[in-house]
């Protein structure tokens, strides 16, 4: 799981989008001369999205606007902003062939003191820092991407020397470049597994307020902004992670209070029947993982020179050698972009570069180096299509 991070408040000129619009901000000029709109206008919901056009045509027109202009569009009126925030907006963008992948990083400086979220836009040549996330600094949180939004879920924080486990959930809207708070979970937890399955978010296991291992699980419905308790695991599990394959939730890695050492059991939840099943062919002590296509890529702590690839179609594993020189314990964080796997080294140094793995390349050409890298060491990376 990602470690703790801090965020710094930044200037308007440093925001992800140079023409971002803030609500409830007096109209003024930035250093670049851009004018900020004072607030979202109170246009009636009965007014058309674009005068003289049916709303379905207007929605298609808005969906064709470049992604970097979305925050400014959200400041035009409430109806525009509501549409841009909606799941329908992403759907219309997809139908229009306009979805674009942007790569987001949670990075920390070399000393491990300051960290922040940043984004690499579609131009691939410039990093932009995101607005700071609300809430206290935390560790052991979960991260899920859904409908063009990034959710940071629960975790552990220390405020004024007192530690506490959180059930809070914060959402970053990648289209509007803004954070908001969602409904809290039923159970506060950290070091748990979470993933999106069929448009729902699942949180499983972890550690609770007293540090006890948890077996409970719950599901979040973004349409109702509500968390619902589902059937628990057969045994407590913490330090695990989750992925979605073929409409099912796969929970791997971590430990259970009922076993000695790390668990190789894979817990599989089927939403249709609302039941759990198990298989034994899992992985242990995973330091990085990412879903690439219909397969899971993992790196285990005991062997950081090989990529373990899981195929859920036949529950098989394939080992791929990582062509890295230098320290055998360099360690990586994973990211995905354009159906390729990015490996970001966890050590700084001139000889360490971002590796790129292309599973569809010709034999012998699967590995390349990439110029893509965060401004600091990568704690976590996600790709958001919007």
TrEMBL record:
Protein name: F-box domain-containing protein
Family annotation (SUPFAM superfamilies): F-box domain, Kelch motif
F-box domain residues: 53-93
UniProt-listed InterPro entries: F-box-like_dom_sf, F-box_dom, Kelch-typ_b-propeller, Kelch_1
The organism of origin for this protein: Buddleja alternifolia
Keyword Repeat: yes
A Pfam family this chain is assigned to: F-box
Keywords of this entry: Kelch repeat, Repeat
Keyword Repeat set for record: yes
Superkingdom: Eukaryota
PANTHER family tied to this protein: OS02G0202900 PROTEIN (PTHR46344), OS02G0504900 PROTEIN (PTHR46344:SF1)
């Amino acid at each position: 799981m990602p470690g703790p991070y801090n965020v710094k408040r930044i200037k308007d000129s440093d925001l992800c989008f140079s023409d971002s619009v803030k609500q409830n901000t007096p109209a003024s000029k930035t250093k670049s001369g851009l004018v900020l709109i004072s607030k979202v206008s109170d246009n009636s919901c009965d007014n058309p999205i674009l005068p003289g056009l049916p709303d379905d045509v207007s929605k298609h027109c808005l969906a064709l606007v470049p992604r970097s202009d979305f925050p400014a569009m959200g400041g035009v009126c409430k109806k525009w902003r509501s549409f841009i925030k909606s799941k329908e907006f992403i759907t219309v963008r997809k139908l229009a062939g306009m979805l674009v992948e942007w790569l987001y990083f949670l990075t920390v400086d070399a000393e491990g003191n300051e960290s922040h979220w940043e984004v690499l836009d579609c131009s691939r040549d410039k990093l932009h820092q995101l607005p700071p996330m609300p809430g206290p600094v935390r560790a052991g949180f979960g991260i899920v991407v859904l409908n063009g939004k990034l959710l940071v879920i629960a975790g552990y924080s220390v405020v004024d020397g007192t530690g506490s486990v959180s059930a809070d959930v914060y959402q970053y809207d990648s289209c509007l470049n803004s954070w908001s708070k969602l409904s809290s979970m039923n159970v506060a937890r950290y070091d748990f597994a979470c993933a999106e399955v069929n448009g729902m978010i699942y949180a499983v296991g972890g550690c609770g307020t007293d540090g006890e291992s948890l077996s409970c699980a719950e599901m979040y419905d973004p349409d109702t902004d509500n968390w619902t308790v589902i059937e628990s695991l057969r045994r407590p599990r913490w330090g695990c992670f989750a992925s979605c394959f073929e409409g099912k939730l796969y929970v791997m890695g971590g430990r259970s209070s009922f076993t000695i050492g790390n668990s190789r059991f894979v817990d599989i939840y089927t939403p249709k029947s609302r039941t759990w099943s198990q298989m034994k062919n899992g992985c242990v002590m995973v330091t990085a993982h990412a879903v690439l296509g219909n397969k899971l890529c993992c790196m285990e702590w005991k062997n950081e020179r090989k990529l373990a690839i899981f195929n859920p179609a036949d529950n098989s594993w394939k080992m791929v050698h990582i062509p890295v020189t230098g320290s055998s314990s360099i360690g990586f964080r994973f990211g995905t972009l354009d159906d390729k796997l990015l490996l970001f080294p966890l050590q700084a140094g001139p000889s360490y570069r971002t590796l790129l793995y292309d599973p569809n390349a010709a034999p012998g050409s699967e590995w390349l180096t990439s110029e893509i890298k965060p401004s600091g060491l990568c704690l976590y990376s996600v790709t958001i299509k919007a």
